[in-house]
Amino acid sequence: MYRSITLGTEDLDRADIWEEFEKCFSRINGLQSYEAVYSAWNKHELKVIADENEQLLEIRSFLADLVI
Question: pTM score > 0.70 for this model?
Answer without folding.
Answer: no
